[in-house]
Design brief:
The protein is mostly helical. The chain is 61% helix and 11% strand. It is elongated. 7% of the residues are buried. This is Zinc finger GRF-type domain-containing protein.
């Protein structure tokens, strides 16, 4: 019973993992590009498949139509291009934010410098007074 359950789990894994252009089969076998020839016409190459080199029709190996794998891969790549396009469209806004922040940093740096000078001016008379009374 346990072996049967493991077999069903493996079948489910294989079915759920078959998306896009496969690189390796779940069994560890390499994927080959298979062209199923047609004897009717010598000019048509026939259907193309991504197939595990250890393929058996037991459900544990990949044998995916080429067009399906390529279509799924194109859909994934299209999604990535759309995401990249959104990032690129947001760059001018980010550049404006960076320029604004750089301006604020410059202003705050000037204010800190001014405060340092003011503190120095306030400490100088106190130091002179303390020196004259011998408290240094």
């Amino acid at each position: 019973m346990k072996r049967h359950k493991e077999s069903i789990e493996m079948l489910r894994y294989v079915c759920n993992s078959e998306y896009g252009i496969p690189r390796r089969c779940p069994c560890g076998g390499a994927i080959i590009h298979e062209v199923r020839g047609k004897d009717d016409y010598d000019t048509l190459p026939g259907k193309r498949y991504f197939t595990c080199k250890n393929y058996e029709a037991d459900g544990f190996h990949y044998r995916q139509p080429w067009v399906v794998g390529v279509q799924e891969k194109i859909e994934r790549l299209t999604d990535r291009v759309v995401e990249a396009e959104q990032v690129i469209k947001g760059l001018p806004n980010l550049n404006n934010q960076i320029e604004t922040l750089e301006g604020q940093v410059k202003l705050l740096t000037q204010q800190v410098h001014s405060l340092i000078v003011q503190v120095g001016d306030l400490e100088t008379p106190a130091l002179i007074e303390n020196q004259s009374h011998g408290k240094v």
